[in-house]
Amino acid sequence: MTWVLKRVVLQICLIFYLFIGVLSELGNPYEILGVHRKASQQEIKQAYKQLAKRWHPDKSKSSNAEDRFIEITQAYELLSDSDRRSLYDKKGITEDDFYKRPERQSYFTQHPFDDLFVHSGAHFNFQENDIMFFHKLSITSKQYDKKIVPKSEKVPYVLFFYTDWCFPCLQSAPYFRKLVDNLEPLGIEFATVHSTREPNLSRRLNVHALPCLVLLLDGNVYVYKETITNAGKIIEFIKSKFPYKLIPRLNEENLEGFLDGWKDNRVRGLILPSKQNIKLRYLVTAYHFRPRVAFGIADSDEIHSQFQVPPDMDTILLFNENISSPMASITIKDIPTSTLHNIISSNQYLALPRLSSQNVLEGLCPCEWNKPRKRLCVVLVTDESSVHDPHRQSFMEYALKFPYNVERVRFAYIYHKKQASFINALTPNGEAIEPLLRIVVFWRRDTSLVRYEWMPAKWEIESKLNNTGAKLVESIAQLLKATESLSYEAYVTDLFDEHAIGLIKKTFTRVSHFLESVYESLGKEQILPAFSVLGTILFILAIGYLMAYLVEKEEADIKKQKANANSRNNNNNTNSSYQPELRLHDLRSEKYNGLVRLLKPGCRTVLLILDMQSRQQLIPRFHKAVWPYRKNKTLNFAYMYIERGLSWYKELLQLSLFEERELNINPRNCVGTVLVLNGHRRYFCVFHAKHKENVQRVSRNVTKLTEKDCESGAFIGFNSDESESESDPVLLQGDLLDGLPNWLDRLFEGSTQRYHINYWPEFPIK
Asked: What fold characterizes domain 2-26+92-240?
């Protein structure tokens, strides 16, 4: 028990010491801005503005103005963020301090007895299995999004997911510690995530079991599913996830093409290893410098002999536009990562680089605050054409022989059409300058503020080159003086990124990464459900396809049967294809508005009047007579039982007469009558086998009926006599519609009589 108490007291003292150390090293943001702890956001903002104006490097002459300005800006960023300010007020630390010095977080005060628990009958070793090692590297979701993901574009990140009371996590601690010790010097960063505290991050990264290793490359997540006890497998896993052909293998055939590919504005790096396999440090280095340097590895002994490098040592050669000899080289048996980074950082630009993106501009021509330290950029404006290749070549040769300090004068060229907005901004007001093959010298005072000067003459490649070069030397020497300033000033926008990935390629990359992540996330416990779901979907699709095929086949058979039936009914029709169906409507009160009253302009309804006894004989003949007009979309076809619509028919005839007298209709004599009703213009035409149309034309557009016409225009059935006169010919019921086809022809010619009415009578409801 005494040993336990001593251990607890020791941990409490350690916690207190670390907490005091954190408070002593951190600056007080309230004191930096000169505000009290309860200051409002408005007061903090006002204090920041006043101090920023005072300590801005452009306005303050103090030697520590830049450091002071950065300190003020960081203090304002902390206090303007409510979460970070609350964290500082409570614990005296910020998230930045927590990330930079994670070993000082106070989380372990919640579990001071973690090292006292026993596993398998023995105490854990404090140096190796203590979970405090994971707490030291722990990050939050906010740190992951703001720092880890952006940094993963250049640096590979390995994340270890753990939680408290996880004995497998404790057992993995020594292996993870060795992994950190071995891979961190190669340029790989490590961090840990407390899975219980950050469940959302665990779900986002598809972590299903603990402990778990996750590799982060360029924002893409790769989950390692094996145990972390085997470092060799972990290294092979990391190697396999780097971008495809990050370091291609080269031989005598493709070596020259690789070295001559510098037109993509990248230096060429040739790796000549002592062994054929690619070391992880070279992959990490190539990944870090991939925007500026393209690496390749020699895959044959002939390349070693060509460049005369020892085969038992590793050699790195860096080439610019001159592919015959390297501009830098290093040969060591085991090249340290720091040495690699130093030599590549010093030679990551071509002899005459192109201003192809804002990052290139920031690297070649960074912003400068002090005039005595100003750095000039001498840029030749050209077109993306082989015609200007000689000008660029001569300008590059001139840059290599330039007599002044290269650190203060950087030479480059730019494409006019691709960077038109940037070039157009560097045009003096009121002056017309043709920028092609002209040289502009500028100095970046700020991210957007540029002071510049155009050289008066174009860059020549012939005999005038010496004169042009000499004048350029004199102008640059004059502009480098501290007392001399450039003539013009302009605000410019960021350069267009010429190396940006297109939308199609970006979409394809995202889809491929998504499919790969889905494939990687499938374990043994997910494979069977996945196959089950896939099989179910395929089964449903197969059943749906089969049903659609059967329905389509049945529809085809029905169409074929109808086509055959139509060909039999119409002997003159030799076309066996299916024709549109002719539909006959039964005129009732509920259909009366649609068929008569509310007809659209230009539409008409052809109505057959019949009774129950004549239905079987008249409907087939009526159907045959109107069949040729089935494709006319302005016609509707219907029939009406005289027993149902007698009152409507009587009132309709009454409205069409000039004389007001009571009609006495014999329903039997109305059978076989065909009415063509125009609902919009309120008129109708009538056909009956015994109805004779006698029209006397009075004028061009007006017609008038005689008295006899009125009597004969009373149609058929106006008298109540059941028997017809002896002078009238006898008509059989089946012959009532014999003259209908001819009458329909005259109807569409416009030669039939029209009977106008003032309104459509109501149809009886039965």
From this structure: Glutaredoxin (3.40.30)
Place of tokens 């992880």: 280
CATH number of 358-491: 3.40.30.10
CATH class of the domain comprising 584-756: alpha beta
Instruction: Say what the pLDDT of residue 531 is.
Output: 77
Q: Class of the 249-345 domain?
A: alpha beta
Distance CA 468, CA 457 (A): 7
Tens digit of pLDDT for each residue in 109-153? 333 333 333 333 333 343 444 677 788 889 999 999 999 999 999
Task: Give 93's pLDDT tier (boundaries 50, 70, 90).
Answer: low
Residues 6+ apart with CB under 8 A from 330: 315, 316, 339, 340, 343
d(CA 728, CA 440): 112
Least Cα distance to 418 among 311, 483, 499, 535 occurs for 499
DSSP states along 648-686: HHHHHHHHH-SS-------HHHHTT-EEEEETTTTEEEE
Q: Which residues of 126-141 are buried (b: 16+ CB within 10 A; e: fewer)?
A: eeebbbbbbbebbbbb
Backbone angles phi, psi at 413, to 5 degrees: -135, 165
Peptide linkage before 211 cis (omega within 30 of 0): yes
Residues constituting the chain = 766
Cβ atoms of residues 295 and 246 within 8 Å: yes
Cα torsion through 63, 65, 66, 68, rounded to 10: 130
